[in-house]
Structure prediction request, 235 residues.
Amino acid sequence: MQKQIVHSNYNLASPPEIGEVLADAAAYLPSKHLPEIRNAYEFAFSQHKGQLRESGHPYITHPLAVAQIVTRLELDHSAISAALLHDVQEDCGVPNKEIAELFGDDVANLVEGLTKLDNLPAHFGDNPDSQNSVQAQNYRKIFLAMAEDIRVVLVKLCDRLHNMRTLEPLPPEKQIRVARETMEIYAPLATRLGIWQLKWELEDLAFRYLYPERYQEIAKRLELTRDAREKYISE
Prediction:
């Protein structure tokens, strides 16, 4: 059974540690795969050393968080390692050949696939009109066609989820752009693959940034409903 993925109140100040990722992985993977995952973490840590996210946190917190989401989906050890390594090729200049030598062709191919998807441009206007809808549909088709291994798409969805959870430090215009991409591309992909927890949280986070006033109105109504329900139960 997959563990809970949704964390609507994700704590930016308390990113996961590698021990948590390994513990989650150990719950469903043979122990022989755990050293590879730790080695992938240590390599990623060394490559990202000194790099920071826009939040000011060490960059390694991002691949760690992505790897944790991947374990919650109970993907295999190669996918977890690829999640930890998914930015070392593009952001650190590590050749794919080196990744293959250190972690095998399977992991290297996943990292290569993720890097290709990162370089696939996606730009949408401010309004979700019919033209944008067609563009997004075409993009999703290209996205799936480029990802020869479905694990690439799954890890990419986990990557986008963590980016959405940590979107707040970015400039408003970038928040809107990323939220629009999430609503138009990534949430529908999660729907198509039947990863409902990812779909729900991606949509929730995107809606929060695209329609903040409406989001707060709905949240307030839900809170009032919850308070009324709890009061009724207590009586």
Remarks:
- Residues 40 and 102 are 9 Å apart (CA to CA).
- The chain has a mean pLDDT of 88.
- The chain has one domain: 18-234.
- The first helix runs from residue 18 to 26.
